[in-house]
Amino acid sequence: MKKIITVDGPAGSGKEKISRYIARKYKLYHLDSGLLYRRLAYELEKKNIKTFQVSKIKSAIKNFKKLSLRKAKMLRKEQIGKAASEIAKIDFVRDFINSQQRLATKAPNKKKGFIIDGRDIGSVVFKKASLKLYIDVDVNIRAKRRYKQLIDNGEKSIYLNILKDIKLRDKTDKTRINSPLVVPKGAKIIDNSHTFKNTIAQIRNIIEGIN
Ligand code: C5P
């Protein structure tokens, strides 16, 4: 079986950037599971289905065969992230996204294995992963980074609103009944509060230690 590395952590913890780096360095295929939740939220929004219209979501899902894994700027919008977090509470939505992830990891490719990031990857989806990482960053640091990113992109934003949104997302993700965000059993905790170089050094020590 190919190597599977899981990367979990809260919103804005830098999981995606870290996973992309590890994928490039160790020739792994990278799957961002949050992107699938965001893609589904976007497709539902296009059909004018609201996140609380559970039976409409159920019927719509039956018609989706394979969700696109294409990265797109519109999927990164705050409103899509919030909607993704809302639909992610629904059992059958999680089952659907999990089956999409399994499909993606079964597709033949020349890579040495997979790195998958999300909220429940090491705790639920790939419990038997070769390595589990959990990325941790204080909520104030996450909000400051997000604020800077928006200002650098020329978008207007208010720091306290961003902090509030991130805290709300943490609460939704950590307290939901189905597959809440937890530190998976056996996961190595990575502190991503400092520089990217520092984070990468922590990860390389772990990966190269087990190889
Ligand atoms: O990681 P990202 O911010 O793109 O994820 C968007 C939302 O999708 C998260 O807030 C979370 O509620 C949900 N999600 C999840 N399980 C995953 C990945 C994402 O519930 N494995």
The number of helical elements comes to 9
Quaternary structure annotation: single chain
CATH topology: Rossmann fold
The structural class is alpha/beta
CATH architecture descriptor text:
3-Layer(aba) Sandwich
- What Rg is obtained from the alpha carbons, in whole angstroms? 17 Å
CATH superfamily: P-loop containing nucleotide triphosphate hydrolases
Biggest sheet overview: 5 strands, parallel
* Pattern of helices and strands: EHEHHHHEHEHHEH
Dominant shape: globular
What is the overall pLDDT average? 93
Distance between the termini: 15 Å
Note poorly predicted spans.
none
How much helical structure, as a percent, in the residues? Answer: 40-55%
Compact summary:
The protein is of the alpha/beta class and 211 residues long. The chain has helices spanning 15-26, 33-46, 54-62, 78-87, 91-106, 121-125, 139-152, 159-175, 196-210; strands at 3-8, 29-32, 113-118, 131-136, 188-191. The protein has a five-stranded parallel β-sheet, sandwiched between helices.
What would you note in describing this structure?
There is one protein chain. By secondary structure, the protein is an alpha/beta fold. Helix content is 53%, strand content 12%. It is built from nine helices and five strands. The longest helix is centred in the last third of the chain and has 17 residues, at 159-175. The two termini are 15 Å apart. Cytidine-5'-monophosphate binds next to helix 2, helix 4 and helix 8.
List the main descriptive attributes of the protein structure presented here.
binds cytidine-5'-monophosphate, 53% helix, alpha/beta, 9 helices, single chain, 211 residues, five-stranded parallel beta sheet, globular, Rossmann fold
